[in-house]
Write the structure tokens for this entry.
Amino acid sequence: MSQSSKDRLGLDDFILELAKAPAESITLERLADCGQRLTLSDELVSSHSRFRDDTYTRNLVCRTTRFELLVLCWQPGQRSTIHDHGGALNVTRVHSGTLTSRLFSVQPAQPAVLVSEETLERGGLTCVDRDQIHQLANESDRDLVTVHVYAPPLRDITVYSAESAESEQVRLRYTLADDFA
């Protein structure tokens, strides 16, 4: 069953929908629903798609006090760290390519342990709750573009290891900010 055009949210309607409540009261279910209904043109996504050879890129589309919307670009073999979102919710939708999404658990003084893994194609959606730990990867042989919504906007994350119990807090930057720094 396809969504009717009135069920879809353009970027303006998406912003207004998420502005109805403070970020801390947005549920993962509500964010997932809005993220699934969000309709972005290929032109908008393409205009925010920048790739790098050394790492995946985080390209900011829109940021409010309640959420941020980014386009992430992944070349084959690129992956994120194993990380949390510092209390933020996350919805990730595949725009093009194939995404591998992994969830982990962490116990005190223990390495991160893989709990589940899924592979998603264009239109596929994966969600991360406020206290979950995950990793995203492009395990395919072609480029991957994903659209991410974080509520509230990300500032700091904690990075974990599958090899040791060490973790590190990291401040995030956008690729564009890195380019102009």
